[in-house]
């Protein structure tokens, strides 16, 4: 399986042998234990909102939920209007009509709001990745990262986060935004450089791009 | 032309011919948990091995493997078959592993610069006679971006194409990182060179 393009700089045999002993896995793979955990985790996903988020949600005062709900509806309504104006009138009803169902299952409005967030995150991360060191002095960028982080967490805690694939992407996005937001608030830029390397190594940019349909323009940041 | 219906798992398992991943995937997409289990059984060893190599910890390796399979099954519909399923699974596992290890490193304030490998390796040979122990410390001290490529290529035998796909970087970047990782290790363990020995 190994290709041999690097034969020139290969390690000497004694080092290669020593490297092969690195973190040598045990002979027995704990198949059954892991399968049981996988089944349990998947059953949790099927049961809508995973429990991990519950404590955070319960700490949040009621007014934040009201703001979140109104923001979600406003954005959903706006996007819905744009969407319905470009589609056949005989298609699905306006997005705002789906709002009452939002507490039970992800709706089309949720998908549109998530797409908007992913589009904004892609623009932000692309800009950040170009020059992470310069980003540390940019207060607007710091504000932008916090806004994106807030919106990501709101979506995670909303019915939009119940969709398993979307939730995974939102959680990955949350992780990277936390690192960036922390790095932008620190004096040392080493963390930002490291986060930028991590961003390049991860598949999140590809995932974001594939989640945003071509032609989707992110709404401007407030 | 009527679409080809996936064979059922019971039919497949009763057949003497090996069942393809594609058949099992098609069956799993219909909600057949036995097909999922068959896919799991087929690929779990490789995914777990990679997870263990990258984490060096049984519990972490199990967490990474489980998370990778949960993500894979939840996103199975997105698997386009452009690469082998095992590659796709290892792609997910390496991504999960890097995220997990990054989080752990941050928590432990354990982020060592690239030069740390040199420092570890530069200890007098008498104080650390075991090459494997020194090698382990030197690999651990590599930055993640080099360590992951080195482990996947030189330890687990992945190709640069697979690594590039797994880590979301061009093949050339994978090669460059491997070269850098090897150079760091060679320097770190210079006193173990055959002539020094």
Average pLDDT for all residues of chain A? 70
Largest sheet of chain B: none
Pair of chains with the largest interface and how many residues each contributes? A-B, 45 and 67 residues
What ranges of chain A have pLDDT less than 50 throughout 5 or more consecutive residues? 1-5, 46-59, 86-103
Please give the radius of gyration of chain B in angstroms. 20 Å
Largest sheet of chain A: none
Specify the helix fraction band of chain B: 55-70%
Shape descriptor of chain A reads globular
Characterization of the model:
The complex is a heterodimer of chains A (222) and B (197). By secondary structure, chain A is an all-alpha fold. Chain A has helices at 13-20, 31-46, 54-59, 62-86, 108-130, 132-135, 139-157, 164-184, 190-201, 204-211. Chain B has 197 residues and is an all-alpha fold. Chain B has helices at residues 9-14, 21-29, 33-55, 58-74, 85-108, 116-121, 131-141, 144-155, 160-167, 171-188. In chain B, helix 2 (21-29) packs across helix 3 (33-55), helix 3 packs across helix 5 and helix 5 (85-108) packs across helix 9 (160-167). Residues 109-128 of chain B have low confidence and may be disordered.
């Amino acid at each position: 399986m190994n290709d041999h393009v690097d034969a020139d700089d290969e390690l000497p045999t004694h080092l290669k042998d020593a490297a092969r002993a690195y973190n040598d896995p045990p002979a027995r793979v704990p198949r059954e234990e892991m399968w049981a955990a996988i089944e349990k985790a998947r059953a949790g996903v099927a049961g809508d909102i995973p429990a991990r988020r519950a404590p955070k949600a319960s700490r949040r005062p009621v007014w934040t939920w009201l703001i979140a709900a109104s923001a979600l509806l406003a954005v959903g309504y706006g996007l819905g209007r744009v969407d319905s104006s470009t589609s056949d009138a005989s298609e699905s009803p306006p997005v705002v009509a789906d709002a009452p169902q939002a507490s039970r299952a992800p709706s089309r409005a949720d998908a549109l709001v998530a797409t908007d967030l992913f589009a904004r995150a892609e623009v932000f991360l692309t800009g950040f990745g170009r020059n992470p060191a310069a980003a540390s002095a940019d207060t607007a960028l710091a504000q932008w990262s916090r806004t994106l982080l807030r919106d990501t967490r709101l979506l995670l805690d909303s019915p939009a986060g119940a969709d398993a694939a979307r939730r995974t992407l939102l959680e990955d996005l949350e992780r990277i935004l936390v690192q960036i937001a922390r790095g932008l608030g620190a004096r040392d830029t080493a963390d930002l450089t490291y986060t930028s390397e991590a961003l390049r190594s991860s598949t999140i940019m590809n995932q974001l791009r594939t989640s945003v349909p071509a032609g989707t323009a992110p709404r401007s940041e407030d | 032309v009527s679409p080809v219906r996936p064979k059922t798992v019971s039919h497949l398992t009763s057949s003497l011919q090996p069942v393809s991943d594609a058949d099992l995937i098609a069956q799993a997409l219909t909600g057949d948990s036995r097909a999922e289990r068959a896919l799991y059984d087929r690929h779990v060893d490789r995914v777990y091995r990679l997870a263990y190599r990258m984490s060096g910890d049984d519990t972490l390796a199990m967490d990474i493997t489980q998370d990778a399979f949960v993500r894979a099954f939840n996103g199975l519909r997105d698997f386009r078959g452009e690469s082998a399923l095992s590659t796709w699974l290892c792609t997910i596992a390496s991504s999960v592993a890097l995220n997990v290890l990054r989080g752990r490193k941050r928590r432990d304030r354990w982020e060592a610069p690239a030069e740390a490998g040199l420092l570890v390796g530069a200890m007098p040979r008498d104080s650390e006679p075991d090459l494997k122990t020194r090698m382990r410390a030197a690999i651990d001290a590599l930055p993640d971006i080099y360590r992951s490529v080195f482990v996947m290529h030189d330890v687990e035998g992945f190709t640069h194409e697979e690594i590039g796909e797994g880590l979301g970087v061009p093949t050339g970047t994978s090669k460059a990182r491997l070269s850098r990782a090897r150079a760091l290790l060679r320097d770190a363990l210079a006193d173990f060179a055959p002539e020094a020995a």
